[in-house]
Amino acid sequence: LKLVTIIGARPQMIKAAAISRAIRLHFNNEIDEIIVHTGQHYDAAMSQVFFDELQIPKEKYNLEIGSGSHAVQTAKMMLAIESVLLQEKPDALITYGDTNSTLAACLTAVKLFIPIIHIEAGVRGYNKHFPEEVNRLICDHLSSMLFVPTIAGIESLKKESIIHNNQVKVANFNQPKVFLTGDIMYDNTLYFSAISEQKKDIIQAKYKLPETFILVTIHRPSNVDDFNKLYGIFTAIERISVEFNKSFVIPVHPRTKAIIEKNNELSSLIKQLNILLIPPVSFIEMIYLESTASFIMTDSGGVQKEAYFLQKPSIIMLDETPWTELIESGNAILTGNDPEKIYLAYKELTQKKLKFDLKLYGDGNASTSIVQTILKDFKGKTV
Ligand code: UD1
Ligand code: UDP
């Protein structure tokens, strides 16, 4: 079975590692996976580090599209992806999540009648101000096989009639098949936690981490592109730091770095506080930081779930999340970028006894069951 996998942004490389690992370990003789990197993320710390560390097969094509407005970036990707697909003629295309690389892959493949396998399907935040929501909506409606991590995702696909009459598995190109599988990022977190634990001395020494700290990631345009919003988040960090005597570690996304560097007021506020700003870290390092942190504040889709997987309380600095089960569990609070809400959420979560149900995102073997299902479907094989 010949599969083309299209990735481009940091979280997609990490997700691809889970599926490539399942192929390598269990189905190597049956699947020929060709990796195509759109080049959406291109800094070594946003791209190469994941290939080096997570054993993702080297990409056969790097389309080197880089940054740009949504239309420019997506259009350039589509042109380049079309010629790869025409050349490779795969049986199907795999794509992950909700970035512009995902959108370009889906729009291009569907018009070449190449079945799309969408992994992390059904995810909805119901806010089209987020480019990711638009990308997810379109991609799910174009896909032939949808692998859905959570029950909430299945409910969303029912509402949109992607699942008809409660049928979760009947298909052809026009009638998608939907599978509830659990989350491949839960697989990855379990798998790489053990490895990150072995590397703890190296990571500690490399970053000179404080003994206890709050881990923060911020990269959403809605939080960083408007300087006042980003400044507001840092005033909340200041208040927590001063009142509770806390240190912070922040691996800085390039989008956020650019805004911080442009603003003296923000840079000097950060310098006054107990904040360790570091470049984007590798995934194994990130898992170490997440497991060592006492608390996590994030606007990342991936990091909010990893906080849960690693049983850490978290503040999700967004107005809504597709991962509603995190909020329902009581271990995470949505605050948007409102400094007062962030402060109050921190107080609430640090005073509360938390309980994590680790079955919410599957059993840690989602990747293997996804690959098995794909093979069975395309080859009629029982493996
Ligand atoms: C993208 C995804 C977002 C995902 C995030 C993961 C879309 C619409 N957004 O957002 O869903 O959560 O990736 O990190 O696809 N830049 C660099 N070096 C790089 C990459 C980016 O300096 O290697 C800078 C550029 O100035 C660029 C900006 O970051 O303009 C934003 O990059 P882009 O890929 O457009 O969006 P992200 O914010 O990274
Ligand atoms: N991540 C990482 N290094 C970092 C920050 C994040 O490896 O410096 C990982 C993180 O653990 C998660 C993924 O990148 O698995 C999330 O990516 P990001 O926050 O960029 O995007 P999102 O998940 O919001 O789309």
Automatic annotation (TrEMBL):
Protein family per UniProt: Belongs to the UDP-N-acetylglucosamine 2-epimerase family.
Keywords from the UniProt entry: Isomerase
Keyword Isomerase attached: yes
Top-tier EC class: isomerase
MF terms (GO), sorted A to Z: UDP-N-acetylglucosamine 2-epimerase activity
Domain of life: Bacteria
Protein name: UDP-N-acetylglucosamine 2-epimerase
Gene3D superfamilies, A to Z: Glycogen Phosphorylase B
Domain annotation UDP-N-acetylglucosamine 2-epimerase: ranges: 25-374
Protein EC: 5.1.3.14
NCBIfam families with a match to the protein in the record: wecB
A Pfam family assignment: Epimerase_2
Source organism of the structure: Fluviicola taffensis (strain DSM 16823 / NCIMB 13979 / RW262)
